[in-house]
Amino acid sequence: MYLETNIAKLLRQLTRYHKESLAKRINCLGLTPPQFMTLCQIKKEPKTIGQIVDAVDLSYSTVSGIIDRLERDGWLERVKDEVDRRVTWIYMSEKKLARFEENSFFQEANYSKFLNGFSEEELVTIHNSFDLITRHLEKKVEEKS
Length: 145
Prior knowledge:
Blueprint (H helix, E strand, L loop, with lengths): L1 H27 L4 H10 L6 H8 L3 H13 L3 E5 L7 E5 L1 H9 L5 H8 L4 H25 L1
Antiparallel strand pairs: 1-2
Helix pairs in contact: 3-4
């Protein structure tokens, strides 16, 4: 029981540190975490508000407000569908896309900074542990489906 409790505690700590680090990086862009999540959704391809709502698991009114503020700040653009004028596509602004990508928290260079100082053997152990945890949790999620 002690091991399970300690593992759970460590996972919560790791998650908290990751979130704090992400929040600092996001703040440098002048964004909130929900705004960042929204931009991540439209970075590669435009989406409708409904598609963004489903992806970020926030209410329609919340996402609509986020999009209003991001549009006001020049982060994105709304474009009416040429075929169906009822549909509005949300695009990442070209001028902000470069800034977003250069400051992206998920760049490998950022993870390299976090992992700097570990020996090769320790990195292999970390990798194997994360792989084991991920596969185990994936099975648990599939069992519940």
